[in-house]
Amino acid sequence: MEKILNIYVLMAIGYMGYFIISFAYKLLNINTLSDGLTSYKAFNLLNIKHLAGIFLFGIGFWVYRKDFDFLIINSGLNNAISNIFLLIIVIASGFVSMQSAKKGLSELDNLSFARREDQLLYFSVRLPFLFIYELFFRGVLLHSSLLYTNLVIAIFINLLLYTLVHSFNSKKEIIGCVPFGIILCLFSYYTNSIWPAFLIHATLSFTHEFIVFNNTKVKIQRS
After folding, report:
1. Using one digit for the tens of pLDDT, what is the confidence trace for 97-126?
2. Phi and psi at residue 108, in whole multiples of 5°?
3. Three-state SS at 113
4. Pick from 47, 50, 54, 25: which is nearest to 119 by CA?
5. Which residues pair with 112 in a beta bridge?
6. Whether the Cβ atoms of residue 156 and residue 185 lie closer than 8 Å to each other
7. Cβ of 134: how many Cβ atoms within 10 Å?
8. CB under 8 Å to 86, separation ≥6 — which residues?
9. For residues 113 and 130, what is the distance between their CA atoms, to the nearest angstrom?
């Protein structure tokens, strides 16, 4: 009992820390990659935010890793039916993200052009951030909640916190958190693994961000 309470305390600290950082970045108008490509200062701040997220969301897992190692050790690819569903969701996520990115680019002005090394730096930080992010929400948070409640309530708690941390983003993204979050929770629950959720989230995010990186028009301004 005491261990679980300690896990919740660590998760609360990590979550609130990242929420406060997200609020500060909202005030700075640096919420997305497009915002980060307006200057090197904004770009570096975006990378720093992801590094902070890796630490804050990873606190609970790093301290109590033995209790949640199964989420990483298990690949989640042990069932043919779930594998088919996973493939369909991954392909659909990539397609939806591609269409959204192309539509979004047509509505944006003054995007910057980032060098290849900037892309490498961004994705080398973004990839572990997304992994730790999923490990927190669809991993430690979901599975620790299941110790005291049922799946429906555990998913509701997950969606509430997941949507709240996206409250500084667009309404479209906030609304999209609900079906997307449910899908990721279900995959994590039925596979006892974080990998399917991470794969889906990484596909959705990276498809959009690769398009943004490779369709920018103005050279990034040094500041």
Report:
1. 888 777 766 555 555 556 678 888 999 999
2. -110, 150
3. strand
4. 47
5. 218
6. no
7. 24
8. 76, 77, 187, 196, 199, 200
9. 23
Confidence label for 85 from pLDDT (cuts 50, 70 and 90): very high
The per-residue pLDDT for 144 is 93
How close are the terminal C-alpha atoms of the chain, in Å? Answer: 51
118 vs 26, more confident: 26
Q: What are 41-62's pLDDT values in tens digits?
A: 888 999 999 999 999 999 989 9
Contact indicator for 201, 184 with CB cutoff of 8 Å:
yes
Contact 30, 46 (CB under 8 A): yes
CA distance 97 to 213: 14
How far, in Å, CA of 185 to CA of 144, rounded?
13
